[in-house]
Amino acid sequence: MKLFSFGLLATLALSSGCRSQPPDPTTSAQSQRTAPVVATTPPTSDASAAASSAAADAAVATTEAPEEALEGMLFTKEAKAAFRVAACGGDDALFPPAIDAKMVETHCGMLKGGYAEYKKEWLALAMPFIANLRPKSLPTTVVYPFGGGDLVSALATFPDATELTTISLEIAGDVRGIMKPDNKRLEKELATLRDHLGKLFLKAHSRTVNLDVETRGAVPGEAAFTMAALAIHGFEPVTLRYFDFKDDGSLRWLTEDDIAKAEKAGKTGRGGPFANAEIRFKKPGEPVRVLRHVAYDLSDANLKRLPQLVKHLDTKPKVSAMTKAASHLLWDDSSFVTIRDWLMTHTDWMISDTTGVPPRIAKKYGFEQDVYGQYEWAEPFGTVNNRDMNDFIALFKGSAALPFRYGYPDAKSHGHMVVTHKPGVGGLKP
User: Fold this and answer.
1) What are phi and psi of 147, to 5 degrees?
2) For 132-182, what is each residue's pLDDT tens digit?
3) Would 365 be classed as within a structural domain?
4) What percent of the chain shows pLDDT beyond 70?
5) CB 294: neighbour CB atoms within 10 A?
6) 342 lies in some domain
7) Residues 68 and 282 sit within 8 Å (Cβ to Cβ)
8) What is the domain range of residue 237?
9) How many domains does the chain fold into?
10) Domain presence at residue 179
């Protein structure tokens, strides 16, 4: 039985970015959005399970050690277990002994056809098209605001990226539960994950409430989406660690003691120790790449009150940028000017749907905009102002259809895409 049709799976890469929300006064600074392997049954005896676990520990320590000494507590086994169980990637040596393999085999069977169909029907169309637009000399550092759970399309858009920062309301989540799950609960969680993925893909955008639900289980939503992206693009996780920000914007890597103290103090959610995570990943024989997911409210009020994120981003002089399905927040002159201005002063090339930078702002900062696809009227997500919508309608007039969707469609389900770039910074036209 197939879980996803192409119409659902395709939107994983084209439109699963997240929207922001107003600051939550009950939380802290951290607020704001392959081919799989079918499981085989691991040994069932206690002795065999212990041997399997010991072998897995040895494999992690000897063959998958990070290429540099890393600060903070590392959650390597947990990341690899989530990769195996939720995303159906990796090999069975790192399969947690406590998990029912037949249950995971059923789960993976539902994902296997979807992965293959997604690669064939979306990646095969979108990646060559975008590659012709993308300049060869772009920075390999990527910043993706309102991009929770969307590593899959970030890698499709920037396949050479070496460092990616996604920012959204959703927290990274606690991956420790994957090692000692309640199998009955895990089965429900995997079913819920598949259901939420299907809904997200069908609606062509994600909802913060869905991903928030998934942060509380054995496989947190952000981690599950990230691991699926790695599996689809042929990567595997190297390790995972958590961090927060120092006042100067530098990163503080959380130790086991930091996490224990935060939990004892009752800190959870965006104010807890599992808000922000770094996942290192790679392909066999290639250098390690880095994804950092930051849970942060990107509104002007929050960034003024808690400027650590902007200070951190300021350490990246030039970046490649993207956003989509962003609830038209970058059109908002009253609440999201800070992140918009940061993008305009730290990138020369940005790709988005029409929820990206509107034409009047692009012109103000000396950018040009190329458009692809059709756009007749905005989908009513967030606050849509007529001025920016009409500017985009005029910009898209006469544009040919786009053979895939990238972010929100317009109100008539047309796919469309916007490239905002400095004069002379651009690739070939498709």
Assistant:
1) -120, 35
2) 999 999 999 999 999 988 899 999 999 999 999 999 999 999 999 999 888
3) no
4) 79
5) 29
6) no
7) no
8) 6-125+139-325
9) 1
10) yes
